[in-house]
Write a structure and sequence with these properties.
heterodimer, A: mainly alpha, about 80% helix, B: Rossmann fold, Rossmann fold, 4 domains, six-stranded parallel β-sheet, 18 strands, about 50% helix, disordered C terminus
Chain lengths: ~130, ~575
């Protein structure tokens, strides 16, 4: 067993599961979506992205790309949140909330692709 | 992803993860530890405020306790977090700095920049391997003519950035092993604009390898190699190397020219000389008794040339083995061998220096050669001295001896390569010139010196093709007859001829030396001229601009603009009508 692989897969799957946790619930209901969960999703995604740096293979490039997509989406959603709460002080209206959640939904899709690629790699290695 | 970014990313993995974790820990602490707002109500920091606070503390900017003064517990946490955040930053910055200093990283950056420069070349370029004195001479000559050059040199000491920056064109260069096919590929051997490879490293073996890889990787490319040893030369020829320059053999032909025809030698010297050098004076060979010091590969060649002319030669060499070899090969001249170096008066006098016509200092040791010339000249000031220079740095010392003929391997190589690449017709011209007599050479010399005078000579080739001389090809396509005299006519004045000498006219396989003015010009012809650079520029007007060509053919200024042409036609018509009446 390769410890590097364990840590690597751990962060990628954690990124997906946390993302899913934040995403589920009514799209416009703030009570179903926790800000600390979004924070955790962003941090774990950032770490997962950095871990993919410097792999020159085709698969490595794909993995990095999916992670970058997820990070961009998540950063956008946190910016929306911060602007709504701290800058405009409108609070989490249903419109704002659905924007935040749909952005994180996009990030989740990227994370799913990431995990699928990871599984493909694992399957290829077994052969 | 290219090597450089991938290197940066890979090295920055740990520092980035460390930074993210440190920020995360600091932010979490600030969120979890309770604080108070300005009214004294208990309050937890929001994630945004925590991130803001951590961002300015971590980077040591320190705006203060924002948005509300911190609680004592939060302050305690802030103290901890400041220390580990700063350490995390320092670690990350330190990593970047070590990476930038890393020799492997530097090499990767230089190599990727070099490859980018080579890839972006859009003009024809030449690949020069080895940047010794020959390499510099060749690169200078190429860039003078606005060709591009790419350089590979394995010795960082030879790669003089300042000297390269003085060249007229930017010269991409890299330190590397040119015998490595990968390196040649990076330097653009497969690039469609690569016109030629010039292998002038100091080692015959490396030159051979370069020639071989070049012919394999890009069969159409023209390859020119320097080689000093026969066996390498034969090997190089076997796979189609286009030209091999052996400075020793070339010098032998030069020496032959000096013996038989001083004017021919002068033609060679003028036409192959470096750009921006003045015309040299003729050298007159002296027949009589000769002394040859140093019987190595250089000495042997000259010895053969001298005895072929029935010249009496005394050989001086310090090696006993060499004497045995000499006695074996030249049984008839056995007694003409003296063991010694020739640097002392005694040996030279024994060889008969007082009455000698000439002396050759041909050993592979520069101090000995210089000393031989000095001693010989002290005893017999009129002696014809031939010196072999081995190390480039002794250039000025050799010039100071005022020897009549100095064999400088690098100069000879550079001359030949310059001719091969810049004016291939010059090689044909010189080859054919050897078969002409002294009188022909004398006439040619006087014609050339008449047009060049005190200026620097310049040799150029004119191709009658669409790209080089569009006006001429257009006129020829219209069915007009153009003669050489039109091209050598000054386009600025009908009373003047351009100060140039047409040296060679080539049509297919047919070559005419010193063509006359009434030679007719066809599409596809090639012409070789000798004159000055300014004259070449004037000639370009005739070749490229229709109105200039019309002028030299008719001595009338043709109208160029549309309106003027209509007006001209109108005037012309009325004129014609008048004559008809």
């Amino acid at each position: 067993m390769n410890l590097e692989k364990v840590v690597f897969s751990f962060f990628m799957i954690l990124a997906l599961t946390l993302n899913f946790g934040f995403f589920v619930g009514d799209v416009d209901d703030p009570a179903h979506h926790n800000v600390y969960e979004l924070y955790a999703v962003l941090i774990v995604n950032l770490i997962a992205t950095v871990m993919k740096f410097g792999d020159r293979s085709q698969l490595g490039a794909m993995l990095l790309a999916t992670s970058l997509v997820a990070v961009v989406q998540l950063i956008s959603s946190t910016i929306v949140w911060t602007v709504a709460v701290h800058v405009h002080e409108t609070g989490l209206t249903p419109g704002v909330m659905s924007t935040i959640v749909s952005l994180s939904g996009g990030a989740m899709l990227a994370n799913i692709i990431s995990v699928i690629l990871l599984m493909i790699e694992a399957a290829m290695l077994r052969h | 992803m290219n090597l450089v970014t991938s290197m940066i990313l890979r090295r920055m993995r740990t520092p980035f993860i460390l930074l993210i974790s440190a920020y995360n820990i600091a932010i979490l602490g600030l969120i979890l530890i309770p604080g108070v707002d300005d009214q004294g109500n208990p309050l937890h920091m929001s994630i945004f405020h925590a991130f803001y606070f951590v961002s300015f503390t971590a980077t040591t900017i320190g705006f203060g306790e924002i948005p509300y003064p911190l609680s004592e517990a939060q302050r305690l946490w802030a103290v901890f977090s400041i220390y580990f955040l700063v350490i995390a930053w320092l670690y990350a910055i330190g990593k970047i700095l070590t990476l930038v200093q890393d020799p492997h990283f530097k090499a990767a950056v230089t190599s990727s920049r070099f490859r980018k420069n080579v890839r972006s070349l859009h003009e024809p370029f030449y690949l020069v391997c080895g940047l010794g004195e020959t390499g510099y001479e060749v690169v200078t000559a190429l860039t003078e003519e606005h060709y591009r050059a790419v350089v590979i040199e394995n010795n960082p000491g030879n790669l003089n950035e300042i000297r390269l920056n003085e060249m007229r064109e930017f010269v991409p260069n890299i330190i590397g092993d040119a015998s490595d096919a990968k390196q040649l590929e990076h330097a653009g051997i497969k690039h469609p604009k690569c016109k030629g490879v010039i292998a002038v490293t100091s080692s015959d073996e490396i030159n051979l390898k370069i020639a071989l890889s070049s012919k394999l990787l890009h069969p159409d490319v023209k390859v020119v190699c320097r080689s000093e040893l026969k066996e390498y030369e034969e090997n190089m020829l076997s796979f189609g190397t286009d030209q091999i320059v052996n400075p020793f053999e070339t010098f032998a032909t030069i020496f032959q020219m000096v013996m038989h025809s001083p004017s021919l030698y002068l033609i060679y010297d003028w036409l192959t000389g470096a750009p921006h050098t003045k015309l040299s004076d003729p050298i007159y060979f002296r027949y009589g008794h000769w002394i040859l010091c140093g019987y190595g590969r250089f000495g042997k060649q000259l010895y053969q040339l001298l005895i072929d002319e029935d010249i009496d030669v005394t050989v001086i060499d310090p090696s006993i083995d060499v004497r045995d070899e000499f006695e074996h090969h030249h049984v008839d001249h056995k007694e003409n061998f003296i063991v010694g170096t020739g640097i002392d008066e005694k040996t030279l006098k024994k060889a008969g220096i007082e009455t000698s016509a000439g002396i050759i200092a041909g050993s592979d040791n520069d101090s000995n050669n210089l000393s031989i010339i000095m001693t010989a000249r002290a005893i017999n000031p009129d002696v014809f001295a031939v010196a072999r220079q081995n190390i480039y740095n002794n250039y000025d010392l050799y010039s100071a001896t005022k020897a009549n003929l100095i064999m400088r391997p690098r100069e000879i190589t550079a001359r030949k390569i310059r001719a091969v690449f810049l004016n291939p017709l010059l090689v044909d011209f010189l080859k054919t010139a050897k078969s002409h007599d002294e009188e022909w050479a004398n006439i040619s010399i006087s014609r050339m010196s008449a047009v060049i005078g005190n200026h620097n000579p310049h040799i150029w080739t004119v191709d009658i093709t669409d790209s080089v001389s569009p006006a001429v090809t257009e006129a020829l396509n219209l069915g007009r007859n153009i003669y050489l005299g039109h091209i050598t006519q000054d386009p600025a004045s009908r009373y003047l001829k351009l100060k140039c000498v047409p040296l060679l006219h080539v049509r297919g396989e047919e070559k005419i030396m010193m063509p006359e003015e009434d030679t007719d010009i066809h599409i596809g012809d090639k012409l070789l001229f000798c004159g000055t650079r300014e004259v070449k520029n004037s000639m370009d007007w005739t070749l490229k601009v229709m109105s200039s060509l019309n002028y030299v053919m008719t001595f009338k200024n043709e109208p160029e603009s549309y309106a003027w042409r209509i007006l001209h036609r109108y005037l012309h018509k009325t004129e014609r009508r008048k004559t008809q009446r």
